[in-house]
Every structure is written in structure tokens, then in C-alpha cells.
Amino acid sequence: MVGANLASRDLKAKTAAIVFDSSNDYSVGLAKAFRTQFLKNGGTIPIEVQAPGGSKDFKAQLASVKAKNVDMIYMPIYYTEGALIAVQSKQLGLNKPVVGGDGLAADQVFFDVGKDAVNGYMTTDYYSPNAKEQTPAGETFIKAWEAKYQQPTHTWGAMAADAYNVIVNAMNQCSDPHDRVCVNEKIRATKDFQGVTGTLTLQNGDAIRSAVINEVKDGKLAFRTVVNP
């Protein structure tokens, strides 16, 4: 959903291609979410192509994508194949905005193999300490974390803090904070909770939350923007 809203709202894309790996649940899940939301936003997806994990030559698929002249490419795959696709896209003259999930640039391989071809690639994530606007909880968390650990915060630490605080918030709403039934009900009813990573609502067991968009600049990820639900 986040990638689709970025494509529609920020990139103003009307058409998109999806490059994904149908043998990978992570890739399939993100592709499905993007497809559903992008179509809901009024966009069209004239082409979807496969990028199987372990493959090295993607030029045929990329040539097909180039022929469709789409506004952007959604690529929910991992770093090794992502880097190769970036290099081969540049060789083919396929120069369209690319958005991927958090797995796309999750390893240094993406930057080492992709080099300047990956500049401009965007990835979704749950948190960035470099976001221009932090929630009050986020500002407090960053100061406390850096004071204790003498290093920058990271996504997993911030998400763990949010999980803990959601539980505490639920316990505080129960007359008996040890009442597991009450606490569970209050957790599931969480709405517009101002956490470290942004605004969080739980809906049918799923987290509806703000998300961060990072962009590759000069060989590393840099904060670009926040996309809200």
C-alpha cells in the first residue's frame, strides 16, 4: 500500500510495471498489496514480469517493460537481483523511477554491484532517525537511545519500543493491568497511537501506520519523505 501511494501521490504515476519473484512469499505479498492499492488509486498496470531469485540475466524482461513506457516500476525483490536489474536497466536505457521494499537495499551487495546504477532507487521502511519531522515520542527515543548506546537508532529498536508502548498503553486502560483479556482487547483497539515510528492503528490484526521512503544518493540510503496511510 505504501509503495502504491508513493507512486500515485508523490511520483504522480498513472501507469506502473511490477517486477517480482512469484516463488518468494515476500515478493508476492508486496506485489499483491501494490497492485491492489495502485489500481484503487486509479492507476493501471500494463505489464508484470518475473525476476526469479538466483537469475542473472533480466534483459528480456526489462526490454518488455521499456516497450510499455510506464511511469514507474515497482520492484519488491532482494538486493542481489535488484542490483543486477539496475545495471542492466541502465545498459538498456530504461530510466524510470523504481520503488522497492525494505529488502531491496538491505545488504551492501546492492550498492557494491549496482554502483551508480542504483542512484535514485527508492525503498520503503518503517522508520528513519533522519526524518525531518519526528513525533514527540520519536524525539525522546532518539535522545535516550543515543545517550545510552552512543550510536544511531535503527528500525528494529524503534519498532520494539512501539510494541512495548502499545502494550503499556493498553494495560493502563484496564482496571487490572494483569487482566490478559482486557489488555488484549485494548491492544486490538489501538487507534491513532503516537509512537516512535509515527501514527499507528491496529485494524483486524494489521498495523496501519506511517512509513518512511528512503532514496539512494551517492551510494547510500538517504531519507526522502514519509507516506501516511
TrEMBL record:
<dbReference type="InterPro" id="IPR028081">
    <property type="entry name" value="Leu-bd"/>
</dbReference>
<feature type="domain" description="Leucine-binding protein">
    <location>
        <begin position="7"/>
        <end position="219"/>
    </location>
</feature>
<comment type="similarity">
    <text>Belongs to the leucine-binding protein family.</text>
</comment>
<dbReference type="InterPro" id="IPR051010">
    <property type="entry name" value="BCAA_transport"/>
</dbReference>
<dbReference type="Pfam" id="PF13458">
    <property type="entry name" value="Peripla_BP_6"/>
</dbReference>
<keyword id="KW-0732">Signal</keyword>
<dbReference type="InterPro" id="IPR028082">
    <property type="entry name" value="Peripla_BP_I"/>
</dbReference>
<protein>
    <submittedName>
        <fullName>Branched-chain amino acid ABC transporter, amino acid-binding protein (TC 3.A.1.4.1)</fullName>
    </submittedName>
</protein>
